[in-house]
Amino acid sequence: MTPESPARTTTPPAYLERLSLTWWFWPVALILVAIVAVEVLLGFPAMPEWVPFAVLVPLTAAAMLWTGRIRVAVADGEFQVDDARLPVSVIKDVVALDTAGKREALGVGAHPYAFVIQRPWVGPAVQVLLDDPEDPTPYWIVSTRRPVELATALLEARSPKA
């Protein structure tokens, strides 16, 4: 048995969420793709009936899975959003935003250098204010279904352990 590399950690993340689509998107999308497949059949009557369904349904499912791929985590001293990493040591403060707060934060007064991961099907978000003179990014805004839990996890990860 070989020992594991110290670079590989097995500690569970303090917070973990995937910004997947809500369940009701799936039946709506599948009904719409079925309608489109029928329209394709009407336009190409010589085509076998199963072809548009065999092509469009898997493509739609793959697109919906890809759309909900974003992973948000607080682990190993980092705030991880998809492939972006932010050390918790540069976090000044975290603000949990409800839907209206997110809309306002992303409105006309938003900073052009802000890092934003926004998903329209996820109402709330967190705003992570940064204190890093080397980075022109003033803050991150990240969609989350549990903004208070994410804000708490970030603040706890930032605090030195007693």
Write up this protein.
The chain is of the alpha+beta class and 162 residues long. Helices cover 35% and strands 23% of the residues. It has helices spanning 25-43, 50-67, 99-105, 147-158; strands at residues 15-18, 71-75, 78-81, 84-87, 91-97, 115-117, 125-130, 139-143. It has a four-stranded antiparallel β-sheet, covered by helices on one side. Helix 1 runs antiparallel to helix 2. The longest helix is centred in the N-terminal third of the chain and has 19 residues, at 25-43. The mean pLDDT is 90.
Write a short abstract of this structure:
The chain is built from four helices and eight strands; from the N terminus they run βααββββαβββα. By secondary structure, it is an alpha+beta fold.
Biggest sheet, in brief?
A: 4 strands, antiparallel
Q: Total helix count?
A: 4
Helix percent reads 25-40%
| Sheet with the most strands: spatial strand order | 1-2-3-4
SSE ordering: EHHEEEEHEEEH
- Residue share in β-strands: 15-25%
Based on CA inertia axes, which overall geometry fits? Answer: elongated
Question: Which runs of at least 5 residues are low in confidence (pLDDT < 50)?
Answer: none
Which class of secondary structure composition applies to the elements? alpha+beta
- How many E-type strands? 8
Distance N to C terminus: 35 Å
How much is the average pLDDT? 90
Give the radius of gyration: 21 Å
